[in-house]
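Lab notebook, page 48
Experiment: co-folding of the full assembly
Goal: obtain a model of how the components sit together before planning crosslinking
Operator: M.T.
Materials (sequences as entered):
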Amino acid sequence: MGAAQQSATGTETSGHGTNGGDALRPNPGTSAGVLNTNAVGEADMVQLLDADGNRHADATFGPYVDALDSEALRGFYRDMATVRRFDTEATALQRQGELALWVPVVGQEAAQIGSGRAMRPADYAFPTYREHGVALTRGLDLADLLKLFRGVSNGGWDPREKNFHLYTLVLAAQTLHAVGYAMGISRDLAADPTTEPAAVVAYFGDGSSSEGDVHESMVFAASYNAPVVFFCQNNYWAISVPFEVQSRVPLANRAGGYGFPGIRVDGNDVLAVYAVTQWALDHARDGHGPVLIEASTYRVGAHTTADDPTKYRMNAEEEAWKAKDPLTRLEAYLRAEGLADDAFFEQVRNDGDELAAHVRRATLALGGADIRQKFATVYAEAHPLVAEELAWFEKYEASFADADSQTSQGGAA
Amino acid sequence: MKTMTIAKAINEGLRATLANDPKSFIMGEDIGSLGGVYRVTEGLKAEFGAHRVMDTPLAESGIIGTAIGMALRGHRPICEIQFDGFVFPGFNQITTQMAKIHTRSDGQLSAPVVVRIPYGGGIGSIEHHSESPEALFAHTAGLRIITPSNANDAYWMIQQAVECKDPVIFFEPKRRYWLKGEVDTENSPGDPFKAHVVREGTDATIVAYGPLVPVALAAANAAAEDGRSVEVIDLRSISPIDFDTVEASVKKTGRLIVSHEAPTFGGIGGEISARISERCFYSMEAPAIRVGGFHMPYPVARVEEHYLPDIDRMLEALDRAFAY
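Observation: model returned without errors.
Model output:
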């Protein structure tokens, strides 16, 4: 059993059944040991499915996967393949000039699908700007994600419909919103015990972990025992800056300093991510407070379509990570167990192409944006300056219409 | 009518809000048992409990950021920032997040958070305890900024700030916390974003807000001894600015003085001067004149009397306006 697992299980055994209190106290005997290396080793990580597709036993987290039926397991593959196909299409749309920018997710599908599928409808996700896979699991129309990147909206969906917040481009700002939202859930429960228990997932990356807001969010989460799961996708590169510049220890180790469990998980193993996130969400929903999950994964492509990873990292590293691909290992497992056949994978491919076609159609149909809508949404209540500037703008616009009509009349005469 | 200080009026306003709106609560550093470093929240924790008057960790970004999250969940946080100069660790959350959530969500979400900030100088304090950063916030669309200058406004405007659907920065003139005035707890003074003409006059207009309103009134009284009739406008709202009230006054008086403690350069006074020049060009006898702080970090307390606009500097500005 790895050190991180000990952290989780240790707190589970000592903390369950109590509301806060001892569950919050750091437990030096069981929290993840301080490692002296940032090596991409697997020894200290929770892993249920290795890179060759073999299942590993695990007393704590195994049962979460054992409870899944074959349809759910196939669903993980379908989701991961779908978001990868979507990503390919969005990248193509950017290259064709239809999007201003795209943020690829290839390589991180397991971290996103596993964590997203562990959430219940009442739970709430606060993404960064790369959580396309989580968006899929929350039931969003993926085409809506492209409104931001096409420049027709700064959002693109109503976050309350699927409990999936808007993307946030200022790094780590959303981790505090997530904690505040979780504190709000606690307040609602205190005011009305019939409120549906729920937890919040705060997504952020290894680069964001250096931002002060991540620290403050963890301080607040611990202070108020907020039902929040910090889900860090450590993809080892903050654009061109490697993880070694962000941290001397695995990020999961930091949780001990705040007094809550930290779990390091193989982020390319969808089953392990699912199980670990389920455990953490149960922990949070049951009133035991926050959990930090570090999903060790890899951003196979560029940070964004404006990035060029060939300038800062080696081919060999990328190849090594491609060998740990989350889709191929699940495919191997599903085939070996007889849970899926050629027809299934063919169907997934066809459905992915259909989705890609839908996304393309929807994106091209978006058309332009109207600045009047921006005037209308600066404030929730009427604002005289906005009204004055809009009135000026309308008059200015109308002056061109007059000029146009005079020109055409002149031409006719 | 009750007579109370501005600090007490805000305290009473917060008490009324907490009593009337179960979703409202106050959060900040030292606001619970201590009652805030200025005792503005005194007694509220004892009355409403730690749940409604919440001492937070010492982290301004954390206070604002978690308040945004709680507002998204339907709660109404009222944050206290201990001093003006300490708001900057929370500046990112206010300007890039709180101010923009309504427009970023295409109108679907809002973050109706109130951020209370004691601001301004004149209390002989040390650095970061006397600043007037309102222009930095006013430049950010999506925020509303109000500042009371008297107890009645203080009592009502804090309640109106919490009721507003937009985020509101509530600047409290800390050197006037002990200024007493009558509070009518039955009748609201109305729209918090509308300026008030607090002294009628015919020859010149002084626009001020927050801590400088009493100074402007004193200057107008002194000017009256020289036979000059000076109108004084308490702006009350820094964003939006009630230009209509200022315009009507300047069209009547022909002269405009704008005064604030914040540095003159890039300040609210420049915005008012420019807008009123556009609207009242043919009515003006003199260019708009600004009376503000100098282009320097707020200076040490032993020289702040030379930095802060006072009666004499307002009278000097009036002399210049009348010399055209």
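Interpretation: The first strand of chain B starts at residue 2 and ends at 5.
Next step: discuss with group before ordering constructs.
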